[in-house]
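Session log. Operator J.P. requested a structure for one protein chain; no other inputs attached. Running the standard single-chain path with C-alpha cell output.
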Amino acid sequence: MVASSVSEVRKALQDLVTTYHELNGEHVDELDEEPSALEFMRYVARNRPFVVRKGASKWPAVQHWNYRYLVDRMKDSIVNVAITPYGNADAVVTAADGARYFAKPYEVEEPFANFLAYVQRQERDGDVTSNVKYAQTQNDNLRGEYSQLFEDVEEDVSWARIALEQKPDAINLWIGNSRSVTALHRDNYENIYCQVIGQKHFTLISTVEMEYIAEQSLPAATYLSSAPKGTGEPSERLPELEYEQLVITPDADSVPVPCATLDVNKIEQDIQGIHQCRPIRITLGPGDMLYLPAMWSAE
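Structure written below.
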C-alpha cells in the first residue's frame, strides 16, 4: 500500500515537471534592456529567471576593471582566499575512505595583488595541477573587504529595489578563474548576478524539480594542509600552498549539512527517473545580468 502511494506521488511529480516545461519551455527570456519594476515583479510572481544582456555594461567596473586597475585600487589590502584542490569549495566531495562530506575550503589571508596574480597566471598557463584559489566570502564583502571597489558598481539594481521595496541585504564579489566551480545550491532570497570580467556558466534547476536534486544531510568537513605542525602560519607559506596536498578533515561535533548531491553533468545517464529533471544552461558575458528567483537551484 505504501509502495503504491509512493509510486503515485512520484508519477504525479513527474507529470507536474513535464507540464511545467511544456508551459514554460527549457530556456529563459533574454532581454535587450533592463526591465521596469512592474515587468520585474511579473517574473518574481512567476518564479522565472531572466537575463539582461549588457544590462550592466555602463558600470565603471565593466568598463575599467583589469589586473592593473584592481591592484592599484586595492593596494596592499589583505583579503580572505579560499583554496581547494579542484576549485570546489562548499561542495559534496568523496574522501579517500569513500565517505561523502560537505567540504569547506582551506582559508588564508593574502595580499590582494598576490592572489590576483596567482589566479591570472593559473588561467594564462593552463595550469591544472596546482591548487585553486578564489575569493568567495559571502558576507557583503563588496561593501566591506573590497570597499575600495564598491563605487565602481551601482549601489543597487533600481528596478529590483523599487519592486521589492528594499535595498539589497548583501552585495558580494566573486573572483576566480575557469577552474573555480560553484556547487549546486539554492538560496531563499532573490539573487541578481552581474558579470564584470570573463564568463560564468550557470546550470539552473527550477523549484518544481526540487525532488530531483537529491538533497541529503552530510557530515561537514574542511580541507586542511597536510604540512607537519610547526612549519609556520599559512600566510608565511603561500608559495608552498600552491602545490601542497590538502586533506579532507571531518569537523569535530559538526551538525549534518543538507546539500544537493545531484551531478547535473550526468543527468542524461541516470536510470532512476532523474532524467525528468531538465536543467537550463546559461552563459553570462561582461555586462550581462541574471535574475535567479528564490529557491531555484544553481551551479
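Operator note: The chain has a mean pLDDT of 90.
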